[in-house]
Amino acid sequence: MKNLVVGAGLTGAVIAERIASKLNEDVTVIEKASHVGGMHYDYIDKETGILVQPKHLNFLHTNNKFIWDYLSNFTKLQPLTFRPLVSIQGINATLPLCLLTLHEVFPEDFAKMLENKLISKFGYNKKITLADMHRNFDEDLKFLAEYFYENVFKPNTIKQWGISENSIPDCSDTYYPFDISMDDRYFKDKYQAIPTCGWTNMIENILKHKNIKLKLNTNFSDINPEKFDRIFYTGSIDEYFDYKHGELPYRSVRTELENNLTDLNGQTFNYPYNFDFIRTNVYKKIIPNVTYNTDKDIVGFEYIENFELGKNERFYPINNPQSIEIYQKYNDEAKTLPNVFFAGRLGEFKYYESDELVKRAFETVAKLIDKDDISNTEDNTLTEAENNTNE
Ligand SMILES: Cc1cc2nc3c(=O)[nH]c(=O)nc-3n(C[C@H](O)[C@H](O)[C@H](O)COP(=O)(O)OP(=O)(O)OC[C@H]3O[C@@H](n4cnc5c(N)ncnc54)[C@H](O)[C@@H]3O)c2cc1C
User: What pLDDT score does 263 carry?
Assistant: First the structure.
């Protein structure tokens, strides 16, 4: 069988590796960019040695040991914890919103009173939403829900999705989370890391297999698909079908890099309402306990804008009733193509975290293997591992 994988992001790389090593078949991977990595693209800055993620920050976070072990075959994973901050009325506060945030933004007595009320109403170590807090008959908790709604959720949603104020749900319908705990980790998963030499390096290693041929700077439109028995398409599904049912909408991110700043706060700082950028990433502070040969920080300023074909890149799929209807039309048509498989964030028009992508890439290839053959493979182990570890 001749296999073609379109796109050398994480999804395409894992699919290619699985076909090469599990099916022992040849795979050609084409990538329109001049490098592999897709959304995970990163590099080590030559002058400073700092790992820069110029598209967006990507942390591996998973409860699935199998995925951790699988990726560890291709890189050394550097364990770390993501602790972003948020600017609330000029105060540097903890995100996720939690009991620590209360003590940072309110006078001590008031914060303590709110903390006691939250614990006695909902219990310690419980995750609630602003809606839960607001629906409560307690006036202080209602005030608290509205405070975070007005200062974090509402301005952040307007910036993130570019929508008007009146299309934002009321506070009483807002599923924005609040943790009744002192745990300031943004992700709570058991395993959290970044590949020590970067995601791009890890994806290059995944693709280093004798059965895989990688062609960079090659667009799907440049090749003859009929030369292949199977096609795994990780580009945008609307592009594959030449936009015949309309364009799928995405939000895009533009990161502007600055390398002459020093002493910026935190790893990542979120600005829901001040400035035009939505967050800053201080790359030197992402991996802890590393000494760099510079006192300068390389900082990424993230601006969110609408995706426009030919102008910028697709980042967040915008899922709304209209776009879901368009996607369904493409998906129905995709089902009529028995040898074309659409996968990943763009192929499935769905936001996936990195561990979910690895799992789905395994599943995509496992479906090609005769059921009897996979009973003892790690493809099956992955499903079992997932069931056992997602507590
Ligand atoms: C802003 C943001 C933050 C995120 N943060 C995290 C995080 O902290 N942790 C986490 O686990 N996940 C995170 N994710 C999710 C994760 O980064 C993405 O889901 C993932 O990178 C998608 O991988 P992919 O391979 O499916 O797609 P992509 O990475 O987009 O790869 C697709 C590849 O296909 C190529 N391609 C497309 N069309 C063609 C064509 N016609 N011909 C040839 N090549 C083509 C593209 O150039 C690209 O390289 C984040 C996502 C976003 C958008």
Answer: 67
Distance 350 CA to ligand 1 centre (A): 11
Ligand 1 lined by 59 (C-beta under 6 Å)? yes
- Maximal CA-CA distance, the chain: 71
Distance CA 332, CA 351 (A): 20
Ligand 1 mutation target, pool 234, 349, 358, 362, most atoms within 8 A of CB: 234
Q: Do 58 and 180 form a contact (C-beta atoms < 8 A)?
A: no
Angle between helices 354-366 and 378-389 (to 10 degrees): 140
Residue 30 dihedral angles phi and psi, to the nearest 5°: -110, 145
d(CA 168, CA 154): 7
125 in the Ramachandran plot: left (φ > 0), alpha (ψ -120 to 50) or beta? left
Q: Pick the closest to residue 179 from 108, 259, 118 (CA basis).
A: 118
Distance 258 CA to ligand 1 centre (A): 24
Distances (CA, A) of 175 to 217, 272, 320: 42, 17, 17
Q: What angle do CA 303, 308, 309 make, to 5 degrees?
A: 135
Atom of ligand 1 nearest to the CA of 356: 11
Residue 144 near residue 97 (C-beta atoms within 8 A): no
Burial 99-133 (b: 16+ CB within 10 A, else e): bbbbbebbeeeebeebbebbeebbeeeeebebbbb
Average pLDDT over residues 97-124: 97
Asked if residues 345 and 351 have their Cβ atoms less than 8 Å apart, the reply is: yes
Give me the residues paired with residue 233 across strands: 6, 342
**Domains defined for the chain, CATH in brackets:** 2-81+192-249+317-389 (3.40.50.720), 85-180 (no CATH), 250-306 (no CATH)
Give pLDDT tens digits for 48-63: 899 999 999 999 999 9
C-alpha atoms less than 13 angstroms from C-alpha of 57 in its C-beta half-sphere: 24
User: pTM score, two decimals?
Assistant: 0.93
pLDDT at 313: 96
Is the CB of residue 39 below 6 angstroms from any atom belonging to ligand 1?
yes
Half-sphere exposure of 227 (CA within 13 A, CB side): 9
How many A from CA of 150 to the centre of ligand 1? 32
